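Sample entry copied in:
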Amino acid sequence: MSQSVDFIFLNEQDMIDAGVMNTSECINEMEEVFKLLSDNDYRMGGKLGNSHGMVVNFPDEPEHDGMPKNGPDRRFCAMPAYLGGKYRVAGCKWYGSNIENKEKGLPRSILMMTLNDADTGAPLAYMSANLLSAWRTGAIPGVGVRYLAKENTKVVSTIGAGAIGTSSLFAILDELKTAEVVKIFDVYEKSSEVLKEKLEAEFKHVDVQIVNSIEEAVVGSDVISIATAGNVSPEIKSEWIEKSALFVTSGSATFDPDFATKNIQFVVDNWQMYEEVKYEDEYPYNNKEMGVVGRLLLDWIHEDKMTTDNIKEIGDVINGKVKARDNEDDIVVFALGGQPVYDVAWAYNVYQNALENNIGTKLNLWDVAYQAR
C-alpha cells in the first residue's frame, strides 16, 4: 500500500476559478450545514464541541521586544471543525487580523484554510480563504431569507456596506426575486456609493437608494441586513420596525429588550455555540463589545429578561421541527455568528470543483513518512 500523501494548494485565483464566488451554490451548501447542525452531525472545538474558535490576543503593553501590541482587530484565531453528512471531512480556518493592514495595502484579515481526511488526518487541500470566508458569511443571510422572509418582500436594506454587507446583500437579492428597492446606509458614504454601483450592475431591476440614517434604512423595510464591522452596534428603535420584518444580523445590534422579548422571534444559527462561551474565560456578561446578537441574548437570559424558550434554531426551521413565526405579524431576528462548519462545507465544495477541473497546484507531503522508512 502506498504511503504517499499529496494535497492541492489553491491560491486566490484558483479559488475564483473553482467557484468560490458562486453565491447560489454557496447558499445551498449553507442550507445543508444547518440541516446537519439540527441533527448534531458535526463537531467544533471547546469543552462542549461548539466553540467558535481559539483566539490569540496581545497585551496592551508587551513585556518582550518584538511581541505585537494590542490594537483594533489585532489577533490570531484558529477555527477547527468536523462536518458529517455528505462531507465527512475536517478542517481549520486560521487567520491573523490587524486593522492597520489597510495602510499597507493588505486586507484587514488574511485567512487560510486546511482540509483534512477525517479518518487519517492527512491534508487534502490548503487554500486561500478570504473569499471563502466572505462568501460563506454572505450566503447565510441568503438561507435566512429563504426560510424566514415574508412572501412578496419588496424592500430590502443594509446597515453596513463593507465586504460582509456586500456579500450578504448579493445573497439576499439572489434569493428574493420580488425585491424592488434596496436601501444602503454606511457611516462612510464612499462605501455606500461603491456598493450601489455594484448592485446596479448586477440587479438592474432594483431601485438602489443611499440613505442617511439607520432610521431611514429600517423604516418601511421588509428585510434589514445588519453587517457592521468591529464594535459598532447600531440601536434599532422599536417604532421603526414594520410588522413581519426580518433582521439578518451578521454584526451586532441593540434592541429594546422589553419590546423584543414580547414581539420578536429570535432564530439563531446554533444556540449551543453561544452557550459554549459561558464556559470560556473570554466572555463576560454585559459585554458591550460582544460583536453578535446571539451573545446579547445570553445577557438577557442571564438578566432574567427572557428564557431559551424564546430562541429557535434555523436548522430546526429548515428540518420542519419548528415554525419561525407564531403568527404572520411576528418580527424575526436571525442572529448569526461565525462557525468553522461553514468554512469546512464551502471549502470542501470548492475543493471538489478544483479536483474535477484540474485547478490548483499538487504538492507532495511525503512519498514515505520518515518514521515508516
User: Anything to note?
Assistant: Residues 38 and 316 are 6 Å apart (CA to CA).
